[in-house]
Amino acid sequence: MAESKNDHMVYAKDLKITWSRDRRYWRWVKDTENSYVAELLNVCWLKVSGKLENANLSPGTQYEVVLVAKMKTRAYGFDDPVNFKVTYPGGTNDRPINLEVEFKDSKDQWKDIKLGEFEASANQGDIEFLLYKYGGKWKSGLVIKGVAVRPKS
Length: 153
Hints:
- Pfam families: PP2 (PF14299).
- This is Phloem protein 2.
- One of its GO terms (molecular function) is carbohydrate binding.
- The chain has one domain: Jelly Rolls, CATH 2.60.120.
- The model has no long low-confidence stretch (mean pLDDT 90).
- It has one helix at 99-102, and strands spanning 8-11, 16-17, 26-30, 36-40, 46-53, 62-76, 82-88, 91-97, 111-119, 126-133, 140-151.
- The chain is globular.
- It has 1 helix and 11 strands.
């Protein structure tokens, strides 16, 4: 993704991914753009979080938050929705996302999954995001490039 002045990408290496340093659960793979992506090998407790400083955004602009990811052909455990929460100065957006449905016709292809939107304000504070599913089925096959925060088109 080419970043303009108002586009921001929080790459996988800058996210907090529970158990990402344990090779039994996650694998770091070098991407074609000389960055690393996080490939989920096997977890039942999924927690990926990150943040972006509000000061990096243009006040009064409507932004969208998207997960840039792909799902491997042999992925499993995503038939139940995972949760996504975006917190920004003045509000919170929390909703379930069925990743199996989102990737149904686009396995092994990068895709932008819209997670929420907000209007940037002059208030100080961070934009925080959290993708999570605690317990339940074991999951595998999700590959995360990062989270993009960009002006809504």
